[in-house]
């Protein structure tokens, strides 16, 4: 596993690059660890409070640990009318957690999200940002069991 | 029979979008070559004359926008808004996945017009695969020497709808929370890192190569005279063909939905269409003969917006759909200004009450007052547009609200 110090160092000097650095940290850790956030703030010359403000503004950034697989269910109007509610229920039932929670084994985090721009095939779920199309509640066990 | 008119997407799936060589083989980068041979002023005039207006929703004349940039500023930026977050919209993704080089060329043409050598593409965080594609496309264009001294960097957002607003987008590129700025100053004068910046939508930029190679008059002659060209629309919801089409801007909504779209799914009847994304108005059947161009849509109290077309069949519960939309805006409000922060919260609260069968006529009146306040007082387009789905459905589908109200004085109810 890469060191957060090295990851942040890659973005030093990049104007406005703190969000890019946050993305890179998340690619490695699935969230932004507290000590990494502090170092990023220092590297980009802003206060820790400001860096925290940035990290918590964006829904795709997280300052809390998340699972290896981040499952997101789109809830926007096109997915809503295509039955997103029933898929949400199926995911919660399968994983045994509610929206916003992570499974005890640290494997899955389940989040709701807004439109991901794949509205030709609603409802849509993403697994670590990879879209899965035309999802029905019945397919959920098969889709999630494929995450090893 | 209404037909597609493909300009931006003529070579969709026939060329590799990342390959500059493929694009050059079908006539690409000729527009930029022409643009570089022109005086800046003449180039801006040519774009003005084409009548090209912003495809992101605001519909502002692109050449006019460029003309506000001070000529003598030493550093200027060209920024592409690829933060398409309007639910039901995926046209910018399609443009990138089918014809990414046209976007790069368009940005370089803008660079030539305003005297900028640095472009940024702000891509939404939901599209990491588009970020990869664009980076490969930029590499390929550079390897072919197609962009000359114009450089483009891709930055990725992180899931904030408000960053589609140009000053919020600029804040985000600068590494800040994506909160809109007060305007003026407009980005054309004081934008990214305080210097003059042109922010245009993907589709706007991608039109430019064709305007340059085929001429402003050719472009001005396509579709609606006051909003010429083509528009890429994305059809979603209860329509047979849930896909994208590139159409001339004088095509009517009825043609888009019933001819290209194949009509309502499963033999059901049409109830409403929401155009322009989730901030758009709901349009009843009586207005379907309206052309999709910016001004015609404005005349029926709607907006073309991003070109999303969400069709609802006769069985859909309008109040339920609008309640869901009100949750979207509450979630996406950045919280900077009071009318939006409190307004989207109250809209959602009242809509839920009505949707759950606990609303009153007073709630409907309050929504209408709140809507007026938000449209006038919110800082940016998010808060101004958030109540439009509510307003337009109270106007056209009030009976659906009334039948959900608590029966008190014999009015409303079933």
Describe the protein's architecture and organization.
The complex is a heterodimer of chains A (148) and B (414). Chain A is α+β, with helices and mostly antiparallel strands and 148 residues long. Chain A is built from seven helices and four strands; from the N terminus they run H-H-H-H-E-H-H-E-E-E-H. Chain A folds into two domains: 4-57; 69-145, Glutaredoxin, CATH 3.40.30.10. Chain A has a four-stranded mixed β-sheet with strand order 2-1-3-4, covered by helices on one side. The model of chain A has no long low-confidence stretch (mean pLDDT 96). With 414 residues, chain B is α/β, with parallel strands linked by helices. Chain B has three domains: 20-220, NADH-ubiquinone oxidoreductase 51kDa subunit (Rossmann fold); 226-313, Ubiquitin-like (UB roll) (Roll); 318-402, NADH-ubiquinone oxidoreductase 51kDa subunit, iron-sulphur binding domain (de novo design (two linked rop proteins)). In chain B, helix 2 runs parallel beside helix 5 (91-114), helix 12 runs antiparallel to helix 13 (338-355) and helix 13 (338-355) runs antiparallel to helix 14. Chain A binds chain B through residues 15-20, 22-23, 44, 53-54, 57-61, 75-78, 80-81, 113-122, 126, 129, and chain B through 84-90, 93, 124-128, 155-161, 172-179, 193, 234, 236-238, 242-244, 274, 278, 308, 310, 312, 316, 321, 324-325, 327-328, 331-332, 334.
Low-confidence stretches of chain B: none
What's the CATH architecture name of the largest domain in chain A?
3-Layer(aba) Sandwich
Q: Give the overall form of chain A.
A: elongated
Secondary structure: helix percent of chain B: 40-55%
Number of helices of chain B: 17
> What would you report as the Rg of chain A, rounded to the nearest angstrom?
17 Å
Separation, N- and C-terminal Cα atoms of chain A? 19 Å
Structural class, judged by helices and strands of chain B? alpha/beta
Greatest interface: A-B, 34 and 50 residues
Give the mean pLDDT of chain B: 96
Strand-and-helix sequence of chain A, N→C?
HHHHEHHEEEH
Fraction in beta strands of chain A:
5-15%
Uncertain runs of chain A are none
Instruction: Count the domains of chain B.
Output: 3
Q: Averaging pLDDT over every residue of chain A, what do you get?
A: 96
User: What are the secondary-structure elements of chain B, in order, as H or E?
Assistant: HHHHEHEHEHEHHEEEEHEEHEHHHHHH
Number of spatially distinct domains of chain A:
2
CATH superfamily placement of the largest domain in chain A: Glutaredoxin
Class by SSE composition of chain A: alpha+beta
- CATH class bucket of the largest domain in chain A: Alpha Beta
Q: CATH superfamily assignment of the largest domain in chain B?
A: NADH-ubiquinone oxidoreductase 51kDa subunit
